[in-house]
Every structure is written in structure tokens, then in C-alpha cells.
Amino acid sequence: MNISVIGAGYVGLVSAVCFAELGHTVIGVDNNPEKLLALDEGKVPIHENLLPELLQRHLGHRLTFSSSISHAVRESDVIFITVGTPQSATGHADLGYVEAVTREIAKHITSMKLIVEKSTVPVRTSDAIRRTMTLNGASPRLFSVASNPEFLREGSAVTDFLYPDRIVIGVEDSFSEERLREIYSPLCDGSYYRREDLIPGCGASAAHFIVTNTNSAELIKHTSNAFLAMKISFMNAIANIAERVGGDVDQIREGVGADRRIGTSFLNAGIGYGGSCFPKDVLAFRAVAREVGYDFDLLDAVMRINKDQRHQFLRKVRDALWTLRDKRIAVFGLAFKAGTDDVRESPAIEIVEALVNEGCLITAYDPVAMPRALSELGLRVGENTVRMASDPYIAAEDVDAVLILTEWNEFASLDLPRLHSQMRLPVVIDGRNLYRPEVMEAAGFVYYSVGRAA
Ligand code: NAD
Ligand code: UGA
To answer: Which Pfam families match (predicted)?
Structure first.
């Protein structure tokens, strides 16, 4: 199948590379010239496991990049839209990029195409795409619009794409369903796993292929993200209760999660969810519900608990260090989660910003996110306010406390005696519960974590 993917960001680039891996001919389109230059040279502009290897495998063969939507429309049967849908000032999703791409497609369409929205969008966006196509001169006989929400996570994006639990498509006609079935067939009939299997054995059970109408598919995406965010906030609320009464959130998670109806995933208490999706999508879904006349105030509580979790953590830092002005603090982790260099809406960045504003001197280390974090922090608190270190032990030299803010594996296996010897005071405040309290106490640390007695 000839496919184009418009918007070569976290979702679009992974999708383009993985569609090529599934045997399709793919044009990745972006309007950022620097990104295109890097991609044409085989350089992946983001940190994502396995993406460089797959890009190398397909670039110049089944996969090419272009800045031209007209070229992409001409050369492909199916056009995926994967541009950003950021939060607008009103809390709604800003659909300006989706609209701009739709208008551009409408201008160039001359034969039958399937347009697929893969960006996360509010319900009824596919109707708006249809309307916009026609308004901009495209004949309704020349296109169909379908929804195919994406569920990949950053940090495991390639394997999430190639080994999904489910593929959801929202369609209004059999033409769209047939094309999308064909595109994803190697993941649903198991043939990809027999042929190329990136991780042998991982695709033992083929993906569920779920066909709905477009409105339901759009709602499935918002529902999934809101539900996952709710699980995290729920557990953060439990952690706050456990802390106050001497419970242990790890034990609670195990005890609750053993019930197969609940499960243990997405129940890790911490410093609250971040990233470019959960925060904006929960807010956007809240706005959608309000607009259709339903007061989904459960989502307000999810967002409030999430925000408060940062404050709870800062309160712990104050409890541990008393006053903050001129305190030296090492921060381990700046990315919003492990496995990525993405710092968009990272709780770690928010916490660093708050500590800088209270007069702390911060030295930070993250295995891959330091360049992006530096520019983000530069914008928020000014350049040179935070020093970056080349490893965690250098970051910890002579500090009053270490804060663990991202759950990178390397922070879970630190050389504890070495860390201890570097620090001025042996205080560790762990926002990701990477250690058992008794282990840290035995190593001589004063250890604070989330949802467990200090
Ligand atoms: P991103 O900002 O990383 O990428 C968007 C890309 O689109 C950028 O490279 C930008 O240059 C390009 N672009 C914007 N306007 C364009 C235009 N007119 N023509 C060509 N290219 C254009 O965004 P992302 O994180 O990949 O997210 C994209 C969408 O997917 C969002 O709706 C997001 O909610 C959703 N989503 C994201 C993830 C994730 O993990 N990041 C997962 C699932 C769904
Ligand atoms: C999330 C969803 O997991 C994906 O299915 C979805 O496709 C994507 O959003 C999206 O729509 O963009 P992502 O944001 O990449 O993926 O990463 P997650 O692993 O979901 O983590 C999100 C945030 O929640 C991170 O800050 C993470 O640290 C936090 N988290 C996650 C917790 O605090 N506790 C947990 O148990 C799990």
C-alpha cells in the first residue's frame, strides 16, 4: 500500500517507520526543514529505542521524507494525519494544524484517497475534516475519512506500535475498513511476527482489530487516556492516605492489583503524570463533555490530585531541608518518564522550576533529556540557573539532597556507598519509589518516598 504520514513527530515518525517495516511504501511529510534534513541523513531527531535501527533499515527504500503535501497526496492511497493537537488557551484541543493539513490535502486531491486522523482529537473531528475537505473544493466522491487513534507510549513507541494490544479503526464505509485492514493485516494475522519479528515471541498473540464508527473511535482515545490518568491519580490519592497512617503504597498496589479486574499497571504512585498527552487530553475531554452538556467532574478531581502531587513532593523537600534558599540539590531525571528525551509537561521540570524560584542551587543529570531540558528551563527560569552534570555522582557532589524525578533504570541501581560519600548530607527524596526504604536506611540515607512512611 502507498501511504503518507503528515507530521513526522513522536507519533508520525514512529508510524512512518513502522508502516515501512510492515512492507508498505511510505512518504513521511513534515514542514520543519531541520527535522527533514536530519531524517534524510538517517538521523532520528528524538530519543526512542529501536527507531534509529528501523530508520536505517528502510530509509531510501520503502521510506522517504518530503516537505510537500501535494507530492504525498499524489503518490499515496492512504494519508495519515499525525500533526500536534496541543492545548489551547481555553483547554480545548487546538485543531489548527489538523485543519491546515486538511485544507492542503483538499487542494491537491485528484483521485480517490483515504484520509485517516491518527492525531488525538475530540469526538466529531472527522466530521469537521469531511466538511473542510468539501468546503475547500474536494469532491466527496474523491475521499473517505477514518479515525485510527494511536496508543503508543514514548519510550516504548516502536514495540507498542508493532505489538499492540488492539488496533482501533473508526469508519463510515467498507472502502475505509478494507484499506485499514490491509495496512494492519501483518499485525492481525500474525504474518509480521513470523516474518520479521523484532522481538521474537512478543507477537505470540496477534492484535485485536476493533472496528467502530468514527465518533466511537475518537471517544475511545480520549476515554483510554482519561482512564489511565485516573488510575494514576487514584493511586496517588491512596499514597497520600497511606503516608499519613503508616501504610505502604507498594504493598497496597500488590494487594489490589492481584485482582485481575484491577491489575497492577498504571498504579505507580509518584509525582503525578506529565507528558504531552495525559495533561492536555484529560483537559480536552473535560471540555468536550461540558460542550455536549455533561458535567464530567470526575476529571476535575483527576487533574487536581495530579497537580497537588507536585506540591506534596515539594512539601517533602521542605520538610527534609527546612529552609530552601541556597540549598544545593541534585536532581536525577528531567524527562517526563524514562526512555525518552521528551520534557513537555515534565513534572521534573516543574519541580526544578519551583525549587529555583525558592533559591535552591540545582545540579541535574538525565541520561538523554538534558539538551531539551536546558532549553525548556532557559525559557522558564533563565539560562544558567541550573547546572547539568555528566553523571549522577558528579551531580551529587556536596549536595544537601538528591531528588529522584524520573524512573530511569540507572537510578534504580546506583552505587549507594559512592553516592553517599559524594553528598554533604545523605538525604534522598525519591519521587518514583525506586528503592525500598529499609535498603536506603541500611545504606545510611535519610530517605523519603511516596506513599510510604518516611
Ligand atoms: P509532535 O509535536 O512531536 O509532532 C508533530 C509534527 O507535525 C511536528 O514534527 C511538526 O513539525 C509537524 N507539523 C505540524 N504542522 C504541519 C504541517 N502543516 N505539515 C507538515 N507537518 C506539520 O507531536 P506528537 O507527540 O507526535 O503528537 C501528534 C499527535 O499524536 C497529537 O495529537 C498527540 O496527542 C497524539 N499522540 C501522541 C503520542 C505521543 O506519545 N507523543 C501518542 C499517541 C497519540
Ligand atoms: C500515554 C499513554 O500511555 C499512551 O497509551 C498514549 O498513546 C499516549 O499517552 C498519548 O496519547 O500520547 P505516554 O504519555 O507516552 O503515553 O507515557 P505513559 O507511560 O503513559 O506515562 C505518562 C505519565 O504518567 C508519565 O509522566 C509517567 O511517569 C506517569 N505514570 C505512568 C505514573 O506516574 N504512574 C504510572 O503508573 C504510569
So the answer is: UDPG_MGDP_dh (PF00984), UDPG_MGDP_dh_C (PF03720), UDPG_MGDP_dh_N (PF03721)
Residue 65, annotated ligand binder?
A: no
- In the set 18, 188, 277, 360, the catalytic residue is 277
Distance 281 CA to ligand 1 centre (A): 14
User: What grid cell was written down for 431?
Assistant: 519521587
**Amino acid identity at 373:** A
Q: Compare 427 and 188 and report the one with higher pLDDT.
A: 427
Instruction: Taking residues 161-179, report their average pLDDT.
Output: 97
| Per-residue model confidence as pLDDT tens digits over 235-291 | 999 999 999 999 999 999 999 999 999 999 999 999 999 999 999 999 999 999 999
**Whether 327 contacts 356, CB under 8 Å:** no
* Distances from the Cα of 164 to the Cα of 4, 153, 159, 430, angstroms: 21, 11, 8, 32
Tell me the pLDDT tens digit for each residue of 188-218: 988 887 776 667 666 667 889 999 999 999 9
Predicted local confidence at residue 265, as pLDDT: 97
| Antiparallel, parallel or unpaired: β 446-448 and 208-212 | unpaired
Write down the pTM of the prediction: 0.97
Q: Give yes or no for residue 425 having a pLDDT over 90.
A: yes
Question: Which ligand places an atom closest to the C-alpha of 96?
Answer: 1
Buried residues in 30-65 as b, exposed as e (16+ CB within 10 A):
bbeeebbeebeeeebbbbbebbeebbeebbeebbbb
Q: Where are the domains of the chain?
A: 2-149, 302-448
Atom 37, ligand 2: residue with shortest CA distance: 266
Pocket of ligand 2 (CB under 6 A): 120, 150-154, 225, 228, 232, 266-268, 270, 273-275, 277-278, 336-337
Please, which residues bridge with residue 3 across strands? 26, 78
Going by alpha carbons, the residue nearest to atom 18 of ligand 2 is 153
Give the CATH class of 302-448: alpha beta
User: What pLDDT score was predicted for residue 118?
Assistant: 98
CA distance 454 to 450: 9
Q: What is the mean pLDDT of residues 114-141?
A: 98
User: Can you give the pLDDT at residue 200?
Assistant: 65
Quick one: which of 49, 83, 47, 3 has its CA closest to 161? Answer: 49
Assign 370 a pLDDT band (cuts: 50, 70, 90). Answer: very high
At the topology level of CATH, where does 2-149 sit?
Rossmann fold (3.40.50)
